[in-house]
Amino acid sequence: MGLLSSTPLEFADRWEEDGGVAVFAFTATKPFRHIAGQHGIFTIKGGGTRPFSLASAPGDEQVVIATKLDSGSKYKKALAALRPGDRITMRGPIMKFILDGAGDEVVFLAQGVGITPFRSLLRHIDTAGLGVRSTLLHLGTGTRSRPRRSNSPATPATTGTARTSPSTSSRLPRTPRTRPTTSPECRSSSPRPAPR
């Protein structure tokens, strides 16, 4: 793969998450492979080119990215104007913010929309049955945000979604066909503020 690889994407869906985050789902028009945690360079005709972390995991049906649209840039306006069926191009995937070499326990720290690569990694841990125990600390953005913590069991959940506590499931971009759910073993996790 890499920067020389180009994949046409068809816009499929958009939804809003907490903190003014807009999530965009695309369908690849040709076979597409990536490693959880990678990102791509997205080009919109008339809007320009920008890098985005992939929020989708390998094996997901769609390519998912998330961003805030409040900058009003030419690119963000073009992204917000996409309609189902519109096409854009993604170069890559590139970079290696991946799990290779990670042990059987990992801790992720994310802030705001920067959670997107972690969403990809957590979905991959779950769907691939890696048995990696993960802890996610997510500091949101906005006036209502407070630090969130979520622990995952060593055994993957069977729901097919990233293991999250109820407090963080709404902050993780979902895939349109798989709404966020919480596995039974995570329901006992209650949100706790980070230590001061």
Return the string of H and E elements: EEEEEHEEHEEH
Q: What proportion of the residues form beta strands (DSSP E)?
A: 25-35%
The total count of helices amounts to: 3
Low-confidence stretches: 153-196
Question: How would you characterize the largest beta sheet?
Answer: 6 strands, antiparallel
The H-level CATH homologous superfamily of the largest domain, spelled out, is Translation factors
- Report, as a whole number of angstroms, the end-to-end distance: 43 Å
Radius of gyration: 16 Å
**On the 0-100 scale, what is the average pLDDT?**
77
| Total beta strands | 9
**CATH architecture level-2 label of the largest domain:** Beta Barrel
CATH overall fold name of the largest domain? Elongation Factor Tu (Ef-tu), domain 3
Number of structurally distinct domains: 2
- Largest sheet, spatial ordering of strands: 4-3-6-1-2-5
Proportion of residues in helical segments = 10-25%
CATH first level of the largest domain: Mainly Beta
Structural class category:
mainly beta
Cα shape: globular
